[in-house]
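Design request, tokens follow.
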């Protein structure tokens, strides 16, 4: 999930129209990427925000996300830890795919289904690979379908070759 968060940040930098918020009739664009990560609690869903994902390595994203998820489960999130997301990721490990519902004002939300092994053709051979269904919901007031497709193509490229997201020296 942390590599996916980093991949989303990289894709958002390349397709900045999705890293926006609609306020009234104005679209606000952001240089920083603040990603909301949905956490399921017994009483409902809460979305803490990992800030400045674009400037963090995967290991820092992992630490920040785990810290926020633990605070959410313990009921210790601060008010400013649940506001300011420019994009949200919802992971439902119990279904193959789903349509995520947009958060108010956000231009896009990514839904991530469970992973499963499936047969795929690679180099003319049928091989088993780990596959996941990703669903993107966008607000057409701010983003059109071609831009959303561009984001998804970029995201696919990044997660199919994740080595570039985890650079040597990042573990320090």
């Amino acid at each position: 999930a942390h590599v996916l968060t980093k991949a989303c940040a990289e894709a958002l930098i390349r397709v900045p129209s999705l890293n926006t918020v609609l306020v009234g009739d104005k679209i606000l664009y952001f240089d920083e990427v603040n990603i909301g990560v949905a956490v399921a609690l017994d009483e409902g869903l809460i979305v803490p925000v990992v800030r400045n994902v674009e400037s963090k390595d995967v290991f820092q994203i992992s630490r920040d996300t785990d810290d926020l998820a633990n605070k959410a489960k313990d009921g210790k999130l601060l008010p400013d830890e649940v506001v300011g997301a420019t994009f949200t990721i919802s992971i439902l490990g119990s279904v193959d795919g789903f349509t995520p519902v947009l958060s108010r004002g956000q231009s896009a939300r990514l839904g991530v289904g469970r992973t499963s092994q499936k047969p795929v053709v690679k180099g003319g051979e049928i091989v088993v690979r780990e596959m996941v269904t990703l669903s993107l919901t966008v607000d057409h007031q701010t983003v059109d379908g071609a831009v959303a497709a561009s984001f998804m193509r970029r995201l696919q490229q990044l997660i199919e070759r994740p080595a570039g997201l985890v650079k040597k020296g990042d573990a320090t």
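Comment from the thread starter after seeing the answer: thanks! The longest strand covers residues 108-122.
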